[in-house]
Design brief:
Elements: E1 6-11, H1 15-23, E2 33-37, H2 41-54, E3 58-61, E4 72-75, E5 81-87, E6 90-96, H3 108-118, E7 123-127, H4 136-144, E8 148-152, H5 162-169, E9 174-176, H6 178-195
Parallel strand pairs: 1-2, 1-7, 2-4, 3-4, 7-8, 8-9
Antiparallel strand pairs: 5-6
Helix pairs in contact: 1-6, 3-4, 4-5
């Protein structure tokens, strides 16, 4: 499938099951996925291992310094913001213990803003169920940089906070029910692959 592309996912309340639902429907050859789920640092490692056991993808808790590889999902650890950097040979994961953003570390906005800056149109953003507004401005930045963006619809969200804020700002190109997000993402990636 499409090379040189990055998928970024952000979620909070209700996100653990929403993320599992999306990843469980993706094949092993998808572009690399970088992901923030608001949760305490004592839980992110076990969450990554659980997702790894439930999907065809390799899911890891990011340690920092990893090069993004297809078929692999990088979950932000609960103690650090996660960013990507464009380097020779692709994209690298960076971690930062900077101040909380939107009261969160890791923050979805930090990840999405770095993806907007570093990958621009070579990315797809997905915002899932969650309380508050974290990720809304970052998703708008991604869309303005040329990325395709998907927001989970209200009916399937546990809390329609983060997607609602992203829609209100104009950051969401397509509103999709949870059960259809993986299929819409794959259809978009295939369209890009055919164009390239």
């Amino acid at each position: 499938m499409l090379t040189g592309h990055v998928v970024a996912i952000g979620a909070s309340t209700g996100g653990t099951e929403a993320i599992r639902a999306v990843l469980g429907r993706l094949p092993a050859d998808v572009p690399p996925i970088v992901m923030v789920q608001h949760m305490p640092e004592s839980f992110t490692g076990s969450f990554a291992r659980r997702l790894d056991s439930l999907s065809d993808l390799e899911v890891i808790e990011a340690q920092g310094g990893e090069m993004l590889r297809p078929g692999r999902v990088y979950l932000a650890p609960g103690h650090s913001h996660m960013l990507i950097r464009h380097v020779a040979g692709g994209f690298r994961v960076d971690l930062s213990r900077g101040d909380p953003v939107n009261r969160h570390r890791p923050a979805v906005d930090v990840l999405f803003n770095s993806v907007a800056a570093e990958a621009a149109a070579g990315a797809t953003g997905v915002i899932l169920t969650g309380m508050g507004k974290d990720g809304a401005r970052g998703l708008l930045a991604m869309r303005q940089a040329g990325a395709w963006t998907i927001g989970q619809d209200e009916a399937t969200c546990v809390v329609y906070g983060m997607p609602r804020e992203a829609v209100a700002l104009g950051g969401v190109a397509e509103v999709v029910p949870l059960a259809e997000i993986a299929a819409r993402l794959l259809a978009h990636l295939r369209r890009l692959d055919q164009k390239s």
